[in-house]
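Query structure, 344 tokens:
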């Protein structure tokens, strides 16, 4: 399939480099109003640079476009692509408002093109493996989880992040990864409670999610961390825990209550050869999470099959993030049943 990338910033660069490696696609162009950014990325990924989206659509004739623009622009350019008969892979969050998201869905459906939202969290190997282990019952019934996602403030590089109306801050733009992932593992969210503190170039949030099936998750997100970007997540069940930390050499570790004489995974075992600790050590990735995500989306478009992350999943993740913002503002928990965002 012929693919293109709109937006040549951080995420546009990631998408273009992934497409350049995928055998099932041809990268026919990248586009950005900033000519230097478009030229740089085109040279790096072996394709043509455009400065107007209309020219990319008319001359590049893509089948699929990745929209890697600031969130307030997702609606406009998704509609333009759909009306040109081009499938859309849109970076998260799906849109600035629930109303826009609904219109994007309607317009894409009416033009018979697919709209996929890039929640990449589910495609990282450690996260996917943890989800599989939990579904398989390795740690029993999960009762609690803790997720942490922190890094430098993106507003130091791109000013639009500093406008909360545009970016949604750390909750909507960064923590939404963990919101979507935790919901995919633990089910529907019943209530949301959030606390948040902001200073110039600092945005910190702590969000508690209560799930319909009884589990509770605490999510920590921070823009402005004076160190490298890092993530961690832990699930605790009545038979053990699953722990992931990007800063540890042991990227996946599962400890179970009680030991057996053989390992339950072939990826590794502890020094005694028992099943009390299973370790998958870090190694260079031949295929990134973004490679996996975009390849999966392209295959979904080609086959017409349902993607791992559905449009409905993306809308629900955005709704939970908006509920967290409302809770942080009001100081009160938000019941997700019947929750509607003011102004949407």
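Result returned for the query:
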């Amino acid at each position: 399939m012929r693919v293109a990338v709109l937006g040549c910033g951080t995420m546009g660069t990631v998408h273009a480099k992934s497409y350049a490696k995928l055998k099932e696609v041809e990268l026919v162009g990248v586009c950005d109003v900033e000519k230097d950014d478009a030229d740089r990325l085109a040279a790096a990924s072996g394709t043509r640079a455009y400065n107007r989206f209309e020219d990319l659509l008319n001359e590049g004739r893509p089948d699929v476009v990745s929209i890697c623009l600031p969130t307030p622009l997702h609606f406009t350019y998704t509609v333009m692509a759909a009306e040109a008969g081009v499938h859309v892979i849109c970076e998260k969050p799906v849109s600035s408002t629930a109303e826009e998201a609904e219109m994007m869905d309607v317009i894409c459906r009416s033009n018979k093109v697919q709209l996929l939202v890039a929640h990449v969290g589910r495609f990282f190997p450690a996260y996917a493996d943890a989800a599989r282990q939990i579904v398989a019952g390795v740690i029993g019934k999960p009762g609690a989880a803790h997720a942490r996602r922190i890094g430098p403030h993106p507003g130091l590089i791109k000013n639009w992040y500093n406008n909360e109306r545009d970016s949604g801050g750390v909750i909507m733009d960064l923590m939404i990864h963990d919101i979507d992932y935790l919901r995919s593992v633990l089910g529907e969210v019943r209530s949301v409670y959030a606390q948040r503190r902001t200073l110039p170039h600092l945005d910190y949030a702590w969000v508690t999610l209560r799930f319909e099936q009884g589990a509770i998750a605490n999510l920590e997100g921070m823009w402005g961390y004076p160190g490298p970007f890092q993530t961690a997540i832990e699930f605790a069940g009545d038979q053990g825990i699953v722990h992931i930390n990007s800063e540890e050499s042991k990227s996946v570790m599962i400890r179970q209550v009680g030991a057996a004489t053989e390992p339950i995974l072939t990826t590794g075992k502890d020094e005694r050869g028992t099943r009390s600790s299973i370790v998958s050590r870090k190694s260079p990735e031949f295929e990134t999470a973004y490679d996996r995500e975009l390849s999966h989306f392209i295959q979904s478009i080609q086959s017409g099959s349902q993607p791992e992350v559905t449009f409905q999943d993306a809308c629900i993740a955005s709704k939970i993030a908006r509920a967290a913002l409302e809770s942080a503002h009001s100081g009160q928990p938000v019941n997700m049943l019947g929750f509607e965002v003011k102004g949407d």
